[in-house]
Amino acid sequence: MKRIGIAASKISKGNLVLYHVYVVLISLLFSLFIFLVAGSTVLFALVIIQYVGSEIMGIDFERRWESILAVCMVSLTVIITLFNLAAILINLRIPKLKD
Fold first, then answer.
1. What is the model's pTM?
2. pLDDT at 80 over 70
3. Quick one: which of 12, 31, 56, 78 could link to 84 by a disulfide (CB 3.0–4.6 Å)?
4. d(C-alpha 49, C-alpha 45), whole Å
5. Could you tell me if 7 and 21 are in contact, meaning their C-beta atoms sit under 8 angstroms apart?
6. Of 37, 46, 25, 23, which is closest to residue 80 (Cα–Cα)?
7. Per-residue pLDDT tens over the stretch 9-68
8. Residue 37, exposed/middle/buried by CB under 10 A (0-12, 13-18, 19+)?
9. Would the pLDDT of 79 be above 90?
10. What's the first-to-final CA gap in the chain, in angstroms?
11. Residue 3 to residues 11, 50, 91: CA-CA distances in angstroms?
12. Which residues contact 30 (CB under 8 A, 6 or more apart)?
C-alpha cells in the first residue's frame, strides 16, 4: 500500500492535489484489477462446483445459482472496498498549517 504513495509522488512531482488524485486513481485501478482476477476465480470455482454437484453428485444448483453468485460478488466487493479505503487513507497527506 505504501508503493501507491511512492508511485503517486513520483508522478505528481510535488503537487499535493495531483498526488491525491493519483493515489485515488492508482488505488482504484489496482482494486479493479484485483476484483476482476478474484471475481473470475470465484466464478470459475462456482462453475466447477456446479458441474461436480450436478453431474457427479446429482444436486440441482440451477435454482440457487444467482443468489450464490450475488452473495459471493457482494462480499468480494465489500472486502476490496475496505482495502481500497485503507490504501487511500494510508497514503493521504494533509498539509501542515504554518503559524
1. 0.74
2. yes
3. 31
4. 6
5. no
6. 37
7. 888 888 888 888 988 999 999 999 999 999 999 989 988 888 887 777 777 767 777 888
8. exposed
9. yes
10. 32
11. 12, 39, 9
12. 4, 84, 87
Q: Which amino acid is at 41?
A: T
> For the packed helices 2-12 and 65-90, what is the interaxial angle rounded to 10 degrees?
60
Q: What stretch of H or E contains 37?
A: helix 16-51
Cell numbers given for 19: 498526488
Cα–Cα nearest to 31, from 88, 72, 97, 92? 88
Dmax over Cα atoms in the chain, in whole Å? 74
Amino acid at 67: S
39 residue type, one letter: G
Q: How many CB atoms lie within 10 A of CB 4?
A: 20
Domain boundaries, the chain: 2-90
pLDDT at 38: 93
